[in-house]
TrEMBL record:
Keyword Hydrolase found: no
Keyword Ribonucleoprotein: no
Species of the source: Actinoplanes cyaneus
InterPro entries tied to this protein: AAA+_ATPase (IPR003593), ABC_transporter-like_ATP-bd (IPR003439), ABC_transporter-like_CS (IPR017871), BCAA_Transport_ATP-bd_LivF (IPR052156), P-loop_NTPase (IPR027417)
Gene3D superfamilies assigned to the protein according to its UniProt record, in alphabetical order: P-loop containing nucleotide triphosphate hydrolases (3.40.50.300)
Name of the featured protein: ABC transporter ATP-binding protein
Residue intervals of the ABC transporter domain: 7-240
Keywords per UniProt: Amino-acid transport, ATP-binding, Nucleotide-binding, Transport
Length: 240
């Protein structure tokens, strides 16, 4: 039997001004599920993540997280609810060290002992970060910055990760490593992931389901396996 949805989006409309970017978007993410958000440049993928995390205001529709109406939740509260957004470009503070960046991810937590435990778990998960603990953000490679951004999000022990283009600018080997790690995390912790990814093959290789956005609308919603096998869809929207 399928688990109860963690995130449920229905009829979502959102944008930056008069003209909406997203139209009538529906999607569901269950605990432990990885859902890929696919589509061409400008399809609205980043806007979707930004709307879910409260950075862009929804104009219409319903966003429920664990039964709670997310449209009524302030951005600062999202992280307490268990929603972590890792934006495109990653948002690492380049002047701070790796360790300071990671600690930032746990500053809001009341359970200090668990924040400390989470920090050491992140170092176990990313040995490369442990080695570079004292290095400044600006000294890191692209892959290390992505790991840092992900690690910082994990210190809040999120239930839902909104992950925007984790492979941007990374070598395929590093991308594969990061995606494998997501799969491992969801298995061990039940983490749910909404994954925006240009690299469609890699995304569908680890996702359970996918939605395809075109001009801000969901044109397809299906299992990752069916999306992989759908040649017409791949040609029309996914470019391979
Ligand atoms: P990409 O892969 O290029 O990031 P995307 O699918 O993530 O594409 P969005 O970045 O969500 O697409 O952009 C969707 C539409 O919204 C585009 O037409 C874009 O021009 C517009 N848009 C994005 N950000 C803003 C903004 N801050 N103000 C106004 N319009 C915006």
């Amino acid at each position: 039997r399928k688990k109860k949805p963690l995130l449920e989006v229905e009829g979502l409309t959102a944008g930056y001004g008069a003209a909406p970017v997203l139209h009538d978007v529906c999607l569901t993410v269950r605990p432990g599920e990885i859902v890929a958000v696919l589509g061409a440049n400008g399809a609205g993928k980043t806007t979707l993540l930004r709307t879910l995390s409260g950075l862009v205001r929804a104009d219409g529709g319903r966003i429920a997280f664990d039964g709670e109406d997310l449209r009524k939740v302030r951005v600062e509260q999202m992280v307490r609810l268990g929603i972590a957004h890792v934006p495109e470009g990653r948002g690492v503070v380049t002047e701070l060290t790796v360790d300071e960046n990671l600690r930032l991810g746990g500053l809001w937590r009341r359970d200090r002992a668990d924040a400390t435990r989470a920090l050491s778990e992140v170092y176990d998960l990313f040995p490369a970060l442990a080695q570079r603990r004292a290095s400044a953000g600006h000294q890191l490679s692209g892959g290390e910055r992505q790991m840092l951004a992900l690690g910082r999000a994990l210190i809040g022990r999120p239930r839902l990760l909104l992950l925007d283009e984790p492979s941007l600018g990374l070598a395929p080997r590093i991308t594969a490593q990061i995606l494998a790690l997501l799969r491992d995390l969801r298995e061990r912790t039940g983490l749910a992931v909404l994954l925006v990814e240009q690299n469609v093959r890699s995304a569908l290789a680890i996702a359970d389901e996918g939605i395809v956005l075109s001009l801000g609308r969901v044109v397809t919603r299906n299992s990752a396996a069916d999306l992989r096998d759908d040649a017409d869809l791949r040609h029309a929207y996914l470019g391979f």
